Amino acid sequence: MAGTGTPLVEMRHIYVSFGGVHAVENAMIDLFPGEVVALVGGNGAGKSTLMKVLSGAYRADSGQILIDGKPVTINNPRDAKALGIETIYQTLALADNVDAPANVFLGRELLTRVNTLDDVAMEAATRKVMGRLNPLFKGFKTPVKALSGGQRQSVAIARAIHFNARVLIMDEPTAALGPAETAQVRDLVKQLKKEGIGIFLISHEIHDVFDLADRIAVMKTARMVGTVNKDDVTTDEVLGMIIGGTLPAQAQVTHIYAPEARP
Predict the structure, then answer these.
(1) 3-state secondary structure of 45
(2) How far apart are CA 92 and CA 83, in angstroms?
(3) Using CA atoms, how far apart are residues 61 and 58, in angstroms rounded to an integer?
(4) What is the reported pLDDT for 252?
(5) Nearest in space to 37 (alpha carbons), one of 61, 11, 62
(6) Quick one: average pLDDT of 28-40?
(7) Backbone angles phi, psi at 115, to 5 degrees
(8) CA dihedral 94, 96, 101, 106 (to 10 degrees)
(9) Are 178 and 148 in contact (CB under 8 A)?
(10) E-assigned strands of 3-110?
(11) Helix-helix angle 119-133:179-194, to 10 degrees
(12) Do the Cβ atoms of 130 and 151 come closer than 8 Å?
């Protein structure tokens, strides 16, 4: 169910075009602390483009983003990070040849007083954050290329939450993972929820969506079909929204497409 009070994130009437092609039209979505909102739809539906606006990778042609109820401007990924918005890409963007602490602090390394890398401090901080996130993680001195897919996800998420992420955009987090690794990623998401972090989950995997999401937002051909509470719908009804763009009659819909709303 959607939370009460002020959303952590609100995206209102977002429009994005590329060379006259409408990639996102009048999208409306919100996210509360400790909530997972799954964003689903076919290829080219606009879901990744919408999230790239929030992450600062793309700029919207029009629309508004609010954080904690206050309008913000996100021109680039640095702006997003400053607002506590981090993205875990499907590729994870890890440096395979170095270990977990080096990846957690990649580009934000800690230095000693004599300007050398402070490996001890970075490992201690990584152990601390991983203790919250995945206490069974042991590969602190292992190059991440030798870690399992679930462990690599742990490293990518640890990097985000160490730097005080409040909003995570997770792009296909279980793609190409086996059952055991998928279960580990699901445990990671549940732990993040407990810590009050809001998650936008981009996924084609309907089972992940129903296991992890509180609400499901469906896009089709650049438009938001609607956002529904997971407990109000079946998998078949969500597939009907994805394929046919139809809303289930009994579902509580929190946002729908309203073409007249463009400013």
Answers:
(1) coil
(2) 20
(3) 10
(4) 62
(5) 11
(6) 96
(7) 70, 30
(8) -50
(9) no
(10) 9-18, 21-31, 36-40, 62-67, 70-72, 85-88
(11) 90
(12) no
Can you read off the two tokens belonging to residue 122?
Answer: 């970075």
Question: How confident is the model over 60-70, as pLDDT tens digits?
Answer: 999 999 999 99
Place of tokens 């292992």: 142
Q: Residue type at 123?
A: E
Q: Tokens for 218?
A: 């469906």
Distance CA 146, CA 152 (A): 9
Can you list the positions of beta strands (E) in 45-166?
62-67, 70-72, 85-88
- CA dihedral sign, ordered 74, 17, 57, 94: positive
- Please give the torsion angle defined by the CA atoms of residues 16, 59, 218 and 197, in that order, rounded to the nearest 10 degrees: -170
Question: Which residue is associated with the tokens 């190059």?
Answer: 143
Q: Give the sign of the dihedral formed by CA 88, CA 92, CA 93, CA 95.
A: positive
Within a 13 Å sphere around the CA of 104, how many CA atoms are in the beta-carbon half? 28
Task: Quote the CA–CA distance of 90 and 203 in Å, as a whole number.
Answer: 10
Specify whether the CB–CB gap between 27 and 49 falls below 8 A.
no
Q: Decide: pTM greater than 0.70.
A: yes
Q: Are 239 and 210 in contact (CB under 8 A)?
A: no
**262 vs 242: CA distance, rounded Å:** 23
Tokens describing residue 143: 């190059």
In angstroms, the CA 143 to CA 98 distance is: 5
